[in-house]
Design a protein that fits this description.
Length: 308
Amino acid sequence: MTTIHRTATEADEPALRVLWAEVFGPAPVAALWALGEKRHARTLVTTEDGRLVAALHYQPRPVRTAPAGAPARVACLGGVATLPQARGKGHVRRMLDLAVARMTEDDCAWSLLFTGTPRVYEGAGWTTYEAPAWEGPLTAPPRAPGGVRAATAADLPDLARLRTAYDTARPLTTVRTPADWHHRVPAWYPEATTTTLLTTDATGYLTFRAHTTPGTATVEELALADPADTPTLTRLLTAAAHEARLTGHHHARTHLPTTLTPSLPALLTTPHPTPRHTGMTRPLTATPAEIGATVGARGAAHWYGDSF
């Protein structure tokens, strides 16, 4: 068998779509990849006797760093997939080694990825970091709080303004572009399974996904015009609990910064910490200490809508 690890070409696109559909199902991996700059040069594939059996890609994205939110050029790695019959042969490891060299040449400071199988990446230099998460039974507000409504497409300018202001100095957040708001965010937050609640005075918003598991809703992001505005935060969390209850949910989890933990009783009756270990980083030109300061900063967050 002839095995080749190489850069993708335009001719590989049909096979890439088939691979990603088989491995990731309905996740919008191929659709978002198709929008990436220099996507072929930043994609590595493995072929066996001419058949594409594995792939990965990266895109440099501006990610804010500690302590003050200065953006770094970060290689966001995704689309890592191997056909079942080609697994266990070291294809991903070889592509990762090639990707590290390519990312470094591309002037990326470090790499970021999210995975449920960290051991695949540890041997290539990536390390896991802990991110806060909480879960528990939803509260049962007797009525919806006033001053909150479901956001619509017409609210995009307010959502973008709030997101930018809330994240200006927040480590690990991505600097969202207009293209992200029009393509990436809707891809990860489809209307069929996602609700975004906006205060009527546009001082804050919250996004939660339904049906992440049966009966469970997941609060994925939140933004406030004033980070110290606890009443607005409480109102949004209460509204989320009420809305989730109406749609048949009784349990929720949150992927929010630790700075918001004191307000969680507005959403969860008994918040239980369930930290995540799915994020991984790898130094390229940055130091491990610099990366650690960013991912471990109080208030650090990577919003699901910025996935890759």
